[in-house]
Write a structure and sequence with these properties.
single chain; 8-stranded mixed sheet; 6 helices; 32% helix; rod-shaped
Length: 362
């Protein structure tokens, strides 16, 4: 009996030692917790009985990168903070006493945002990791580079302004997917090129449908200096050129040079003029009127030159010849010229020396 009791006691001691060693080697660090969550391999969207999850976006940081005035499109960058719940990625605080842990983005499922009215869209993860909480709440940041077309009203260009919508949604189809809840938007650095972003607002138009209303306006100083001011100066120089004398053709050649220079100016700046939108820019009408004034000024200068030379606007070949009244002797220049010619001929006739022969009667 004593031998059996001793062996039982020895067995109990060995079991307690094994349990103590096993409990001492159990991993309870954050990294072990992250590895345990990764081993679950949950790469699909969390699906409940309603087949729909709520995706909360507390705020979006918006920035306009560039505006293409010719093609009426603009490029913007948006960075969204997304929060959603994945119950199967929750853990018991009694086993792992941590409130949050970092997980790789490519090892768990992450939602994506889309812009429905975009021409091109690039999605970038703000980080290679996301933050997971003990209750299954996931937090991640995503960046969007998007190109959106906008029919900007350019009638008052370069003093134009308009509002362009950017439609943001999360994937959803037939009652399944993500229900987007967008709360706020923050504007970053609204000055880009010849355009500036005045403000950005969030507008909700339906379940899960959100629009960012972006107010764009042109900075009129640069277009005014490069487009309007040169045309005004050319018209001013053309008006001052009437002070040049009519004789010699200096005024006409100068006005022709101005007209050709203005045409070359329009050809060079054709790539800078805005494209067609709902209303054609009034700037095109301005250039057309300037060109008409230059052509009219050049034509008027040519006519004035003709009047100053001949006294008439029509050519001499088109005038009818009228009989002239007989002039007094010495008043007709043609008659005086012919008489001078005869006198010159007589003065140059050969002179005969000796006495002249006279006929005598014997």
């Amino acid at each position: 009996m004593r031998a059996g009791g001793a062996s039982t006691l020895l067995l109990l001691m060995l079991l307690s030692t094994a349990c103590a060693s096993a409990s001492g080697t159990a991993c309870t660090t954050r990294r072990c917790l992250a590895q345990a969550l990764i081993d679950r391999r949950l790469l699909s969207q969390p699906q409940t009985g309603q087949c729909k999850q709520t995706l909360k976006v507390p705020f979006i940081e918006y920035q306009t990168l560039s505006v293409d005035t010719m093609n009426l499109r603009f490029t913007s960058r948006m960075q969204a903070q997304m929060i959603w719940t994945d119950p199967e990625l929750a853990w018991n605080r009694s086993e792992y006493d941590y409130e949050s842990v970092v997980l790789p983005v490519d090892k768990v499922w992450t939602p994506e945002l889309t812009v429905t009215n975009s021409m091109s869209l690039v999605l970038l993860h703000g980080s290679k990791d996301l933050l997971a909480s003990s209750d299954g709440t996931m937090t991640h940041t995503m960046s969007l580079i998007v190109v959106v077309t906008c029919e900007v009203n350019l009638f008052r260009y370069p003093f134009a302004s308009d509002t362009c919508p950017v439609a943001i949604e999360a994937w959803s189809k037939d009652g399944c997917g993500m229900d987007l809840e967008l709360q706020d938007v923050h504007l970053l650095d609204g000055e880009q090129g010849d355009w500036s972003t005045d403000w950005v607002r969030v507008q909700k138009r339906g379940p899960g449908q959100h629009f960012l209303l972006v107010s764009l306006s042109t900075k009129s100083m640069n277009p005014f200096i490069s487009l309007i001011l040169p045309s005004i100066l050319i018209l001013f120089v053309d008006a001052v050129s009437f002070a040049l004398p009519l004789g010699g053709g200096e005024r006409n050649s100068f006005k022709v040079t101005l007209a050709l220079s203005f045409i070359m100016f329009l050809l060079i700046l054709n790539s800078l003029l805005p494209g067609d939108s709902q209303c054609s820019p009034i700037l095109r009408i301005h250039f057309c009127v300037c060109l008409i004034f230059l052509v009219l000024s050049m034509t008027a200068s040519m006519l004035l030159t003709r009047v100053a030379k001949d006294g008439l606007m029509i050519p001499l070949l088109c005038r009818k010849k009228t009989p002239s009244a007989p002039s007094e002797p010495g008043e007709d220049p043609d008659e005086e010229a012919s008489a001078a010619g005869e006198r010159e001929k007589k003065g140059n006739a050969p002179v005969t020396h000796g006495h002249p022969r006279h006929a005598t009667n014997t």
